[in-house]
Specification:
The chain is mostly helical. The chain has helices at 6-15, 20-40, 51-62, 71-106, 121-139, 142-153, 157-182, 186-193, 198-232, 240-249, 253-281. Helix 4 (71-106) runs antiparallel to helix 9 (198-232), helix 9 runs antiparallel to helix 11 and helix 10 (240-249) runs antiparallel to helix 11. It is globular, with a radius of gyration of 27 Å.
């Protein structure tokens, strides 16, 4: 090798990626896995560009304009919007009342028997039962709960409130327990070793160091509950979703467009309110 070619070889070695065989094999494996999955799910997005699909889409979008802005319709929309907010708020409130005791039972750091290093059998079994119950509650989507409660209590926001309460109780209980256990256990253990009860330990050790995170997650879940309450209306749980479902079935694009605008404004307002609450409570 001549001295003139040494810089060229050195530059080529610097440009060569030593990990390219592993990355290439990873891409090939991903393609081999994803391709059959796409085939099994019949994922064919190019059908959206068919002539008939484009025609139907264009006709539906054309019916959006002008949006329906009659006074009678807007009053009905305002009523259902308030019902949607109320359904989400009541549902998340019930979820909190269910999640807090479940979380306190599931938290190991509040166990008196756990101070010795190994919990007794009865508290351990009770915590496992509560954790399994939380898994069941959050594993069933709120849409499924709503379908069940529509059959039980009938159409209306009651089924939506119960659906949100059960699903979000499982979510909140699990996350509350994880947040309380993720903090520094030294303060809580010191209080309990000196005779403090579980509630005293909760209020004087766990909540002061985890309150901000607990509040932030609760507000986030309230924001999610507003979105969920609008979707639950499609199965008869009331609110904006039920109005939109009726408008879609009647192919009334002007009403659908108005409801979409209201729903976007509702989500935007809930996001602003949640941001303000986090700032106010921090």
């Amino acid at each position: 090798m001549t001295p003139a070619t040494e810089p060229t070889v050195a530059a080529a070695q610097r440009l060569r990626d030593p990990a390219w065989p592993r990355r290439l094999s990873g891409v090939i494996v991903a393609i081999l896995i994803l391709w059959p999955i796409l085939e099994w799910t019949e994922f064919r997005p190019w059908t959206l560009w068919d002539k008939e699909s484009l025609k139907q889409t264009g006709n539906f979008l054309e019916s959006f304009f002008p949006p329906k802005l009659s006074v009678e319709f807007l009053v009905q929309v305002a009523h259902e919007t308030w019902r949607t907010i109320a359904m989400a708020t009541v549902g998340i409130t019930l979820a909190i009342f269910l999640a807090v005791p479940f979380a306190l039972i599931a938290v190991r750091v509040l166990s008196l028997s756990g101070l010795s290093g190994r919990m007794q059998r009865l508290p351990t079994a009770l915590r496992e039962v509560v954790r399994a119950l939380l898994i069941i509650l959050r594993s069933v989507p709120e849409l499924i709960w709503a379908l069940i409660f529509v059959r039980v209590v009938g159409l209306g926001p009651t089924s939506g409130v119960l659906a949100i309460a059960l699903t979000y109780a499982g979510m909140l209980g699990k996350v509350y327990a994880e947040i309380l256990e993720s903090g520094d256990p030294s303060n809580s253990q010191a209080l309990m070793r000196n005779g403090a009860g579980r509630l005293q330990t909760l209020f004087y050790a766990l909540l002061p160091q985890n309150a901000d995170e607990l509040i932030s997650y609760t507000i986030y879940r309230w924001e999610c509950a507003i979105r969920s309450s609008a979707v639950l209306g499609f199965v008869g749980a009331g609110g904006l979703g039920q109005m939109m479902d009726a408008s879609l079935k009647m192919f009334n694009g002007s009403e659908v467009f108005t409801l979409l605008i209201v729903f976007l404004l509702l989500v935007w307002c809930s996001d602003m309110v949640s941001a303000w609450l986090r700032k106010f409570l921090s």
